[in-house]
Amino acid sequence: MDPILDRPIKLTIHSCPGQLPVVRAALQRVCELVGFGDEAAGAIVLSVDEALTNIIKHAYQGAIDRTIEITLSAIGAERRTEALQVELRDFGRYVPREQIRSRDLDDVRPGGLGVHIIAECMDCVDYAPAEGGGTLLTLIKKLPARQEASK
Amino acid sequence: MDVAGEIDLNCSLDFQQALLRLMDAHPSRIVINLAGVSYMDSSGVASLVKLLSRVRKSGLSLRLAAMNDRVRSVFEITRLDSVFDI
User: Fold this and answer.
1) Which residue segments constitute the domains of chain A, with CATH numbers given?
2) Cross-strand bridge partners of residue A140
3) CA gap A55, A102 in Å, rounded
4) pLDDT per residue over A15-34, tens digit each?
5) 3-state SS, residue A137
6) A62/B contact by beta carbon, under 8 A
7) What CATH number is attached to the domain comprising B23?
8) pTM
9) Would an 8 Å CB–CB cutoff place A120 in contact with chain B?
10) CA distance B56 to B85
């Protein structure tokens, strides 16, 4: 594994929108260090930001004093990171997966785009009830296949 | 109107209110200069969609200018790049 993610990185924030830039900055740096290019890093940062926004607005209904746990970890084998996994855990109202839908993009109106953005940007998206209540959202983005060094 | 900074849930309400106040001056056209915007998520986009709705009802024109690649990608992912004049 790449040194930066030999062990998971855990961030705990409050459901306060003012803390979102901190998460974005930290995640951007992790993406750079893991080896994502600018476009992929941007997609990851945007997706996590959208997911956190949804947690604040829907799981926590705008409350700013609730806890959100973010865990960044590497997926890979043989000491090589193949993907970045971001887990977002909230303790709010669990919404069944089948109720989480993106709206029709041809219906141009404010709101409702976060789910679509996350699905477009990430390679894997999984919503599951968290043990003890709330939701565990798992997002995975694969690193581009690295060129083998020529011998 | 020049916009700068990161437009997310934290400031999107202020952003939206500032956009809608533009209509108070009864302009014939509106250009939003996004050169100073380093980041925008769907809450910022939603504010612009709301302005677009008002602009269309008033028969005015709205143009978004000078967005960086990251901001542009949000409009492309949501297919709003074909809705707005960019």
Assistant:
1) 3-142 (3.30.565.10)
2) A85, A124
3) 15
4) 999 999 999 999 999 999 99
5) strand
6) no
7) 3.30.750.24
8) 0.91
9) yes
10) 12
Nearest-by-Cβ selection for B78 from A39, A49, A105: A105
CA–CA min distance B28, chain A (Å): 23
Query: Which pLDDT band holds residue A1 (cuts at 50, 70, 90)?
Result: low
| Among the listed residues A90, A44, A53, A47, the one whose alpha carbon sits nearest the alpha carbon of residue A70 | A90
User: Do B85 and B63 contact (CB within 8 A), yes or no?
Assistant: yes
* pLDDT one-digit tens code per residue, A70-105: 999 999 876 788 999 999 999 998 877 777 766 666
Structure tokens at A7: 């062990």
Alpha-carbon distance values, A114 to A49, A148, B36, B49 (Å): 9, 36, 23, 15
ipTM of the shown complex:
0.92
Identify residue A131 by its one-letter amino acid code: E
Question: Residues of chain B whose C-beta is under 8 A from some C-beta in A?
Answer: 6, 8-10, 39, 41-43, 45-47, 49-50, 52-53, 69-70, 73-74, 77-80, 83
